[in-house]
Design brief:
Elements: H1 3-8, H2 12-28, H3 36-67, H4 69-72, H5 78-85, H6 90-105, H7 108-115, H8 121-131
Helix pairs in contact: 3-6, 3-7, 5-6
Length: about 130
Amino acid sequence: MSITADLDALDPLGLAEVICSASKQLASKPLWSVPSGQTLPLVRQLTAARSALDAARLAAIREVDTRGTAIEAGSASTSAWLKTVGLQRPGAAASDVRVAADLAQCYPATAAALAAGEVSLAHVQVICRLLNS
C-alpha cells in the first residue's frame, strides 16, 4: 500500500497526528545536509504546507465555533479556549475565530487559495480585515 493510500484511510484527527509527528521529525533533521540547490524548494514546499495546515486549522476552528464545542467543554468562547490550549494571545485567538468565519461564510476562493498554499495566513488576515472595514 502506498503512503498516499495509507493517508487516505485516515480520518482528520489521524491525519493531524501524522502531520504533527512528521513535522517534529522534520524539525529535528540536520539541514546542513540538504544540497544548496534544494534549499529554496524546501522553503517553498514548507511554506505551502504551512498555508495548507493553516487552512485546515481554521476550518477546524470554525467547526468548534459553530458547534459550540469549546463552550460545552467549559470555556467562555472558542477564542477563550484557543487562548488556553493554543498558546495564543487574546487578539490572535479572536482573529482566528473571525477569519475562520469569514473564510467559511464569505470568501471561499480565498480559503481555497490558502489551502492550496498560494497565499499565507498573514495575507488572508489582511484581506479579511480590509474587506470587513
